[in-house]
Amino acid sequence: MAAEMVNWFGDGNYYTGNLDLKSEVAHTFSVTTNWHDSARKDWEVAVTPYYSYVKDYINVDRFGTIYSGQSVRSQLLFANHDAQLYGVDLKWKKQLWNNDTFGHGQIRGVAGWVRGETLDGDDLYHMMPLHATVALEETLGRWTSAIEVQMVDSKTEVDGLRNEPTTPGYALLNLRTGYQWPHVRLNAGIDNVMDKFYYQPLCGVNFDNFQASNYNAPLQSVAGAERTFYNSLTIQF
């Protein structure tokens, strides 16, 4: 019971501490290359590949398995394992128009991919799959508005020691706008305009549903937010 209460990562597993753990030491190499027009107003692209070697990465060892209905949970002991993480980040923008009638418009995007694994060959927990966000933005006078598409690939490289669930890919449409006065800004928007159902790849498991099923249903990832309306008012003084 004590190990079950130490649900360190919200993943439904049982965790046991280890007083012999060593501190992690990370060695990272990265480089950023940037291309842009001479005035840095028309277009820009930046690419950052990176590699990290982590000595004594704090991971886990499995020493037992708990079967409950359709679910499988692990008894885990914190342990040091050397690991490596490597990936690339990308960001870019391109001006589309700039005139008195339609103001200033641009398209911009960011993307990222990372791979994490121990040197023993196990996938690391909670690695974000390939993802990208592309936004069409317009600034017209005091108005700033955007149409944004958020895309996330399926998550298939998961931590088998923690029985991490896979998640399917998805794409979300978001809208936002804002108006700026001298000392006040009003923002409003809609996230997930199409009200798409999706699972978040880095949010653990839905333990409430698991408990409601009397511990018989399989553990699933936490679902993402439904269509969401929001607004905010910011005052500067």
Describe the structure.
This protein has 237 residues and is mainly beta. The chain has one domain. Helices cover 4% and strands 55% of the residues. It contains two helices and eleven strands. Strands 1, 2, 3, 4, 5, 6, 7, 8, 9, 10 and 11 form an eleven-stranded mixed β-sheet that branches. A hairpin with a 2-residue loop joins strand 7 (131-140) and strand 8. The longest helix is centred in the last third of the chain and has 6 residues, at 207-212. The protein is globular, with a radius of gyration of 22 Å. The mean pLDDT is 94.
- Tell me about the largest β-sheet: 11 strands, mixed
Kindly give the count of domains.
1
Radius of gyration: 22 Å
Sketch the topology as an H/E string, one letter per element: HEEEEEEEEEEHE
Q: Which class do the helix and strand fractions yield?
A: mainly beta
- Fraction of residues in helix: under 10%
Number of H- or I-type helical stretches: 2
Relative strand content: over 45%
N- to C-terminal distance? 53 Å
> Average pLDDT value?
94
**Rough outline:** globular
Low-confidence parts: none
> Using DSSP, what is the number of strands?
11
